[in-house]
Design goal:
Length: 391
């Protein structure tokens, strides 16, 4: 309703003395309404822009109509009400198929994103992710990244939307994706331990084994794997409902017999007063590739090189370098203290009675070795972190 119509209606029923307050209220309300409409239209245009960027020439299962170029509603930075510039979301050439030799790589979005960024950085491949941008940049011309949820990456790799990517083994199993598992990368959100999908119930539940859940309903994000777990054990009548999140809360709801949720340390389950009944799957992070990319010599070499660097970064995180000046006569004694494959680098010094010694050891070994070499007469003992350790 226009302000004029509102004013005429108001003056017919209310005293004129209150008209000033009424006008102020009307104009404020209209401004808020207009702003809300603009925000809604802007969000819709952003969504269309991102879908359009990702869809061609690959169908990712998202339905979207091409915008009418003649319409004034077509998105452009010039007409966006909030002035947001989406030029940074331009699709890299590799994603459009124009660069045939570049590896289209699915980078995990969500819980694995931060730890994967840190891993790439240690491997000498720092990744830059801008706000509201689905195409991170990396200092490697042979690699083009796109952000996807870990759950989706196995499907898109299997369907040749992506050449390769990083995801958990759990989602390869859940989706039944036919992919090449190039490397097992033992890292996760918080630890280097495998993540576990477990059946959990409230602490006071009478359920003690998976068999006790026959005929009950279970909330799980991993629906297919959960169903297979019970069928393989001839446990029938279990209804598995998909959980959209906050799964721990559902364990105590009426009608829910148990939940299936992922855990690394079990702390979240304990915090929600839940008890583990069974483990249905253990999962580690995997670097995967599709069969076509694996048969392409150039892409395969790039994927294998990436796997080598990432594995080296994982191994390097557990090690430290150890340097010292050691009496030359003590070198054989030091060598005897090291694992058989660890031969120290020994360099002569001006003082012939001493030499410079350098060795890479496990972080836990270093703290035990330092007092030992000190008693051997070592001086200038220094430790330093290792970014890469490739055997």
């Amino acid at each position: 309703m226009s302000i004029l119509v509102k004013v005429l209606s108001y003056t017919c029923t209310q005293p004129l003395s209150s008209l000033g307050y009424f006008l102020k209220k009307c104009t404020t309300s209209d401004r808020h309404s207009t702003r809300s409409d603009l925000n809604a239209r802007s969000r819709a245009r952003r969504s269309t822009k991102i879908r359009a960027a990702i869809n061609p020439p690959y169908d990712l299962g998202i339905e979207s109509a091409a915008p009418d170029e003649s319409s004034s509603d077509v998105w452009s930075p010039a007409v966006d009400p909030l002035g947001t510039d989406f030029s940074s979301n331009a699709v890299p050439a590799a994603m459009t198929g124009k660069d045939k030799n570049c590896v289209r790589f699915g980078f995990p979005k969500g819980s694995l994103q931060k730890s994967t960024e840190e891993l790439f950085a240690r491997a000498g491949l720092p990744v830059k992710v801008k706000d509201r941008n689905y195409f991170p940049t990396v200092d490697d011309d042979g690699l083009s990244l796109v952000l996807f949820r870990s759950q989706e990456i196995p499907r898109y790799v299997a369907d040749n939307v992506l050449d390769a990517g990083i995801c958990g083994r759990d989602w390869i199993v859940e989706n039944g994706s036919d992919v090449i598992e190039v490397a097992e990368l033992k890292y996760s959100k918080a630890t280097s331990n495998p993540a576990r999908w477990v059946v959990a119930v409230p602490e006071d539940s009478p359920v003690r084994t998976a068999e006790d859940l026959e005929g009950t309903m279970i909330a799980s994000e991993l629906v297919n794997t959960t169903q297979r777990f019970f069928l393989d054990r001839d446990i029938h009548g279990v209804k598995v409902e998909y959980s959209w999140g906050a799964t721990e809360v559902k364990a105590s709801l009426p009608g829910v017999g148990a939940i299936v949720d992922i855990t690394e340390t079990g702390s979240s389950l304990r915090a929600n007063k839940l008890r583990e009944v069974a483990t249905i799957l253990e999962s580690t992070t995997r670097l995967i590739a599709n069969k076509d990319a694996w048969e392409d010599p150039i892409k395969r070499a790039r994927i294998e090189d990436l796997a080598l660097l990432l594995q080296g970064a994982i191994d390097g995180k557990k090690k430290v370098g150890l340097k010292m000046n050691l009496p030359t006569a003590s070198v054989p004694e030091l060598s005897a203290q090291l694992p058989s494959e660890k031969s120290p680098t020994v360099s002569p010094l001006l003082d012939a009675d001493y030499c410079a010694v350098e060795v890479v050891v496990d972080e836990g070994t270093a703290k035990d070795l330092i007092p030992v070499v000190r008693r051997m007469g070592a001086t200038g003992i220094v430790t330093y972190p290792i970014n890469l350790s490739i055997h």
